[in-house]
Specification:
The structure holds two protein chains of two kinds. By secondary structure, chain A is an alpha/beta fold. Helix content of chain A is 39%, strand content 23%. Chain A contains 19 helices and 27 strands. Chain B contains 23 helices and 14 strands. A six-stranded mixed sheet of chain B has the order 8-7-6-9-11-10, with helices on both faces. Chain B has a five-stranded mixed sheet with strand order 3-2-1-4-5, sandwiched between helices. The model of chain B has no long low-confidence stretch (mean pLDDT 89). The chains are: A alpha/beta, B alpha/beta.
Chain lengths: 672, 511
């Protein structure tokens, strides 16, 4: 069998995922502002895809590498397929934007105005804004013999302007400033919301920057650069310094994407391609505004009922003292339907508690102004031993991470910057407390990050326990990460890159065995990406042995389900809805005595081989049943579910009044 | 109650933090960092600066962990590699300066001491340690430390330089086929271990217990049918042979791959297996017991339960049992020696304050009383000199080299001769120790004289002092005491010189 018939290429599968996001933007059943957010998500997703994946493929092309990858495709072919699929997605995006979204905006009296559509008052407002805010912070950059084409950072939007004085023509670049919002809210009457893009304001005032010159032509463009950080960590003893150095290099990395307005001036296009060292045929021309991520801003600045998903208050688990609660029984928190509060409270209480001796935690992506970081600093100030394993390599957040890592260090925390060559993706906390002269340890493990903001929009599951087997294992994992010890055999926790893949394989083998003995092999799992070829092959093997495999894979899925003789016992669904599906739950039927696991890991090669991830088994019957209940409801979903077919396409179930939405169900379930 | 142990071993450095939970030790933290001290010391006799710094840096990290658990009761020990390093002093000093940890460098006796005491505690409910004659072996990377215990008392302890790391180095240096290398290693190990049997033909051993923390956990990987119900289990001779025969067919890489064993273990597991099989040759049983435990655990248990004071016999009784063992081994007149020890105890009690002696000095004197005639085994003539070097070369349970030297010198001067500048052993002692040797040997001379006939005539003894400090020893006996009396007058001069007072003997019929 050809590899192409066996696997879906990961990049194409990713584009399929972004297509599902776009479907949500286009879906008129979704509230308007939520559709705008989906447009924003789609746009920033695609940017990241270009900066990372397309950049990687381009590097291979540039180096002349021409071997097939694990999915059976050579770089040139995949580049062309990506380009074709991505261009169609962008086309579909603009069709949605200029079509149903704009008309729905207008129907709701929300206008993105052009200069010529402004009222007199608005015109004055805009002029004042330009004079006082925009003009002082914009510096035009001349391009001539003495001034080479400027190095524009990734995600820059700018105008290329052709100016002339006498017989001499010049090129100048005017970047749209990133330090202020791109969307300007205009004074309006009644319930109307009027906005204008600052791009339009700048364009209208270009002549202000070039007094004494004649503007011959101008075109707006946007560029993305290769953002893949590549340095040999083995030879970078101080990861933090190495990272800072790499970030500085990022500004000058290779341009991987250029977007321009459709009516761009031909000559300017040629000049730009030369300046940016970019092929003209790869430029993406769009029929309207560049970079639609400004819809995030728009959605958050409109305060009007009926155009958002219904608001709800995440339910809170009742307890008086978090330590007593955990000691009383292990429990889980299902976010965002249940509040993230117990996690935050655990760290805050620990920081203040005189009996707490030490706090250890991993931080992968966290939010600005994080209560958890404040609590850690307070704990250090109270002379507790605070160890924070910071993963500064969390993509596109490196600069932010470096900043708060430094702050933690200054507060007296012991900050560890991960392991060379491995990303610390596991989310875990260990608290050491003195109770009646003895040590008692509390553990929190989660499928999601310690991020108070994403805890409101990502679905995740946090697990709290005072079981000392977990505590010992987690303490050991910390000791390995911090270089305090070599790994020792762990009882309750399975970790990558040591034995995670092998452990999953054993579980699958066991299910195959159960199938042959009892004809009831069943694997149910929900996670975000399935890309590891070894794992896919193992699942095919299980399917061929008759094991039923039911998967909910939100994002990339390189496995092709339902193919006779290969995967007819596998079904794959994807749920893209109001909340980003992020929890990872794995259930192995085990002849009626199910084994239930939670994990920070997806089934991607990087999760198995290049990250520190944790998998842990839940043994308490009530929690097992509850996780099975969660999983069952996800499989019941018919509102936001797409089914992956054997032709590699995702098909959405027909919608009607009885369609069941798992996310909506969970909101009600936990609050009532 | 919480305590920590840092063990600087030959191949790795470890930290154990534990807490007392009833009668058990609950391990809270267990850290291990491979640091190849032994690899350098066993080849070049020195610990390189980089390794010293690496050790200090790991200990710094351990310090942080100890803080996390609020542990202040910490014991830091080092074993074979540090003990044998020629630059041991520099190592200890650097670590002390950089970490403020003071390292206790254990000898084989210390290791065995901790292990023996730990066994009594650990196996309290499972195995009657104090009722058996046992051979206990603790296998480290640098050495195999063995002790013979008779009914709970340690008779002897020996450290063999055949730790697993050393063995793998030995095997690496052998130029031959895999089979030839294994055979040569077996011969080498046999030659070392079977020495115990050859040298102590009368030794009766009920059971052998091997303490191992690294290898036995992988037995099941090699022998899948072998069941281990707990961390203390029997390993049969047939199983040990099968274990070895499976391993010896493969190189370490194949062992690691085939049996899913970590590479650092797979390179040394054959040595472990050969030692196991050789130990079986020391017992009439067709099995050995394996206890999966470590020296660190033993020390931790000792810290948490203070076994020394509560559970076992005192140090003097332990050392007296070793002395008995040595006396029997060298064919001594044990009745005479016991009697001399009995008299020295009386004399010590009487002269203790006058001579400014303390309890520790009593221990030296009693041991010297038992061991002073060992040199007779070589020759009666100049036997005091032979005694000195036999004692100096003996491994006396947990006594330091200095202490052993003191005892050897007391025995050396139990006859007529006095210390001279040319006497190396004596001159290696500090001036305080030298005067101690003189005082104690003066007492030993008297005690020995009072049993000159080796017939234990003196049934009772009293020492009286008059107002000017002159002493009278009253011996109660019903036998002819003339020989002893003559000898007393010959030997009393030394003590008189030291005390500055007269010494008289009165013999009375036993009342």
């Amino acid at each position: 069998m050809e590899l192409k018939d066996k696997y879906i290429h990961r990049d194409l599968s990713w584009l399929e995922f972004n297509n599902r996001v776009l479907e949500e933007a286009a879906d008129e059943r979704n509230p308007l502002l939520e559709r705008l957010k989906f447009v924003g998500i789609f746009t920033s997703n695609l940017d990241e895809f270009y900066m990372v994946r397309v950049a990687a493929v381009k590097k291979l092309l540039d180096s002349g590498y021409n071997r097939k990858d694990q999915f059976g495709t050579v770089p040139h072919d995949i580049f062309m397929e990506i380009k074709g699929q991505a261009d169609s997605l962008v086309k579909a995006l603009y069709t949605t934007y200029t079509g149903s979204i704009r008309s729905t905006l207008e129907a709701n009296k929300i206008y993105l105005k052009r200069i010529e559509e402004l009222t007199e008052a608005q015109r004055k407002h805009v002029k004042r804004y330009f004079d006082t805010t925009l003009y002082p912070i914009i510096t035009p950059m001349a391009v001539d013999q003495g001034h080479p084409f400027p190095v524009l950072p990734s995600k820059t939007i700018a105008f290329a302007v052709s100016i002339a004085r006498g017989d001499t023509n010049h090129l100048a670049i005017i970047p749209v400033p990133k330090s202020i919002p791109r969307l300007l809210k205009l004074p309006s009457e009644g319930e109307e919301f009027d906005f204008i893009l600052i791009d339009d304001v700048i364009k209208d005032n270009l002549k202000e920057f070039f007094k004494g010159y004649k503007i011959q032509a101008s075109s707006e463009f946007r560029l993305l650069r290769d953002s893949e950080i590549a340095f040999d960590e083995e030879f970078a003893p101080n990861l933090l310094k190495a990272m800072e150095k790499e970030l500085k290099k990022r500004t000058s990395a290779k341009t991987v994407y250029v977007q321009m307005e459709q009516q761009a001036n031909e000559e300017l296009v040629d000049t730009l391609c030369k300046g940016l060292n970019f092929l003209k045929e790869e430029i993406v021309f769009v029929p309207s505004d560049l970079d639609l991520s400004f819809f995030y801003e728009m959605a958050s600045s409109i305060d009007r009922p009926g155009v958002r998903f219904g608001s709800y208050v995440p339910s809170k688990i009742a307890y008086e003292n978090i330590f007593d609660k955990i000691k009383e029984e292990d429990f889980i928190v299902h976010m965002p339907f249940q509040s993230f509060y117990p996690t935050e409270d655990l760290i805050q209480t620990a920081a203040k508690d005189p009996d707490v001796l030490a706090i250890k935690m991993t931080l992968y992506r966290t939010n600005e102004d994080s209560n958890i970081i404040k609590a850690l600093m307070e704990a250090a100030a109270r002379r507790k031993q605070v160890t924070v394993v910071v993963e500064i390599k969390a993509r596109f957040e490196e600069e932010k991470n470096i900043q708060w890592a430094r702050e933690l260090e200054q507060a007296g925390c012991h900050v560890i910057y991960g392991i060379a060559g491995l990303k610390i993706h596991s989310k875990m906390t260990l608290i050491v407390r003195r109770e009646e002269g003895r040590i008692r340890r509390y553990v929190h493990l989660s499928t999601g990050n310690y991020n108070e903001k994403t805890a409101r929009i990502y679905t995740d599951i946090g697990y709290f326990t005072a079981n000392d087997d977990f505590a010992r294992d987690v303490a050991d994992v910390f000791n390995v990460i911090t270089g305090y010890s070599q790994p020792s055999p762990w009882k309750r926790v399975i970790s990558s890159p040591y034995d995670l893949r092998k452990y999953f394989f054993n579980l699958i083998d066991h299910e195959i065995e159960q199938q042959s003995k009892h004809k009831n092999g069943l694997i149910m799992a929900k996670f975000n990406s399935l890309e590891d070829v070894q794992m896919i092959d193992k699942l095919y093997l299980a399917s061929q042995a008759g094991v039923k495999i039911k998967l909910i894979v939100r994002g990339i899925c390189c496995l092709i389900p339902g193919v006779e003789g290969l995967s007819e016992n596998i079904e794959v669904k994807s749920i893209v809805g109001q909340f980003l599906e992020h929890s990872r739950i794995f259930v192995f039927h085990n002849n009626g005595a199910p084994r239930v696991y939670l994990s920070s890991a997806d089934w991607m090669t990087r999760n198995f081989d290049r990250r520190v991830e944790l998998l842990f088994e839940i043994t308490k019957p009530e929690i097992k049943n509850h996780l099975q209940f969660i999983l069952d409801n996800y499989f019941k979903d018919s509102l936001k579910t797409r089914i992956l077919k054997k032709d590699k396409k995702y098909v959405r179930l027909p919608q009607n009044e009885t369609s069941f939405g798992a996310q909506e169900y969970f909101i009600n379930h936990y609050t009532h | 109650m919480r305590a920590g142990v840092i063990d600087i071993g030959s191949s790795s450095t470890k930290l154990l933090i534990g807490e007392r939970h009833g009668e058990d030790v609950k391990i809270i933290e267990s850290l291990k960092n491979p640091i190849p001290l032994g690899r350098h010391v066993f080849l070049k006799n020195r610990i390189p600066q980089t390794i010293i710094n690496q050790t200090a840096s790991v200990l710094q990290k351990y310090k942080e962990t100890l803080k996390e658990y609020d542990v202040s009761d910490v014991t830091v020990i080092a074993t074979t590699a540090v003990r044998e390093a020629r630059n041991q002093d520099i190592f200890l000093d650097t670590v002390l300066r950089k970490t403020s940890f003071k390292i206790d460098v254990l000898n084989a006796g210390d290791v065995v001491y901790y292990i023996d005491y730990f066994l009594s505690h650990k196996l309290k409910k499972t195995y009657p340690v104090s009722e058996k004659n046992l051979l206990i072996a603790e296998l480290g990377a640098g050495s195999l430390d063995m002790s013979v215990m008779a009914k709970g008392l340690t008779l002897m302890n020996i450290g063999f330089p055949i730790g697993t790391l050393r063995l793998s180095q030995f095997m690496e240096n052998l130029d031959g086929s895999m089979q030839e290398v294994h055979e040569a290693t077996e011969e080498y190990i046999e030659n070392e271990i079977l020495f115990i049997k050859k040298n102590n033909p009368g030794l009766a051993i009920d059971d052998i217990i091997l303490i191992d923390e690294n290898y036995s956990v992988f037995i099941q990987n090699v022998l899948p049918n072998k069941r281990r119900d707990s961390d203390f289990f029997k390993f049969k001779s047939s199983e040990a042979q099968e274990f070895l025969s499976r391993l010896r067919q493969m190189n370490p890489e194949e062992i690691a791959r085939t049996y899913d064993i970590p590479v650092d273990i797979s390179t040394t597991i054959v040595g472990f297996s050969i030692i196991l099989n050789t130990l079986l040759k020391l017992t009439k049983n067709d099995y050995v017991y394996i206890l999966e435990a470590s020296l660190s655990e033993a020390i931790l248990a000792n810290q948490l339960f203070r076994l020394e004071a509560s559970e076992k016999t005192d140090r003097l009784s332990q050392l007296v049992s070793v002395a008995h063992f040595l006396c029997r081994k060298y064919g001594m007149d044990l009745d005479h020696l016991k009697h001399v020890a009995f008299i020295t105890e009386q004399l010590f009690a009487a002269f203790k304050d006058i001579l400014g002696l303390n309890g520790q000095d009593r221990l030296y004197l009693i041991l010297a009383a038992y061991l002073h005639d060992l040199g007779m085994f070589i020759n009666n003539r100049a036997h005091h000199k032979h005694s000195e070097y036999i004692i100096s070369s003996s491994n006396l349970f947990r006594l330091t080299e200095d202490e052993i030297n003191i005892i050897a010198c007391i025995a050396r001067y139990h006859r007529r001769s006095a210390p001279l500048k040319t006497h190396l052993g004596y001159n290696s002692l500090s001036s305080h120790q030298q005067i101690l040797v003189q005082k104690l040997s003066a007492l030993l001379r008297i005690a020995n004289a009072l049993d000159r006939s080796h017939k234990q005539k003196a049934k009772r003894l009293e020492v009286k002092f008059n107002a000017s400090g002159d002493a009278t020893i009253v011996v109660f006996t019903q036998e002819n005491f003339l020989l002893e009396k003559v000898n007393f007058f010959e030997k009393k001069e030394f003590l008189e010189e030291i005390t500055g007072n007269k010494l008289t003997l009165i013999v009375k019929s036993q009342d």
